[in-house]
């Protein structure tokens, strides 16, 4: 399972979660600096990533455009890197189910 971590998430998540989300990437290393939401969306779509973000703009894109890519919207506020890591680890089975779901484009994690 491949996640593309949006620029509002800590880049350390790539290494910290490599055991459960292998082949994941960070937007900052995958795309030019300050890439538009559309560019991020297109990159995730064309490279088979699910997009993990705190940005509600991607929630709106998920509703408007559907999937791919699927969007995991983290609504955890100003959480620390370790809190975000725990949330994603705890939600691993939900994310696997979401990945296999052919209907839904958005998963909201509190």
Walk across the major sheet and give the strand order. Answer: 2-1-3-4-5
How many domains? The number is: 1
Task: Flag low-confidence runs.
Answer: none
**Strand percentage:** 15-25%
Tell me the structural class: alpha/beta
H/E series: EHEHHEHEHHE
Shape: globular
For the terminal residues, how far apart are their CA atoms?
21 Å
**Biggest β-sheet strands, sense, barrel:** 5 strands, parallel
Quantity of strands, as a count: 5
State the share of residues found in helices, binned by percent. Answer: 40-55%
Count of individual helical segments = 6
Q: What's the gyration radius in Å?
A: 12 Å
Pfam family, one: DUF5615
Domain DUF5615: 1-103
Protein name: DUF5615 family PIN-like protein
Organism: Candidatus Korobacter versatilis
Write a concise keyword list for the protein shown above:
single chain, 110 residues, alpha/beta, 5-stranded parallel beta sheet, globular, DUF5615, DUF5615 family PIN-like protein
List the helices and strands and how they pair.
Elements: E1 3-5, H1 13-16, E2 25-26, H2 27-30, H3 37-47, E3 50-53, H4 56-65, E4 71-74, H5 81-90, H6 92-100, E5 106-109
Parallel strand pairs: 1-2, 1-3, 3-4, 4-5
Organism: Candidatus Korobacter versatilis
Domain DUF5615: 1-103
Protein name: DUF5615 family PIN-like protein
How would you characterize the overall build of this protein?
- By secondary structure, the protein is α/β, with parallel strands linked by helices.
- It has one domain.
- Helix 4 links the parallel strand 3 and strand 4.
- The protein is globular.
- This is DUF5615 family PIN-like protein.
- Pfam families: DUF5615.
- InterPro entries: DUF5615 (IPR041049).
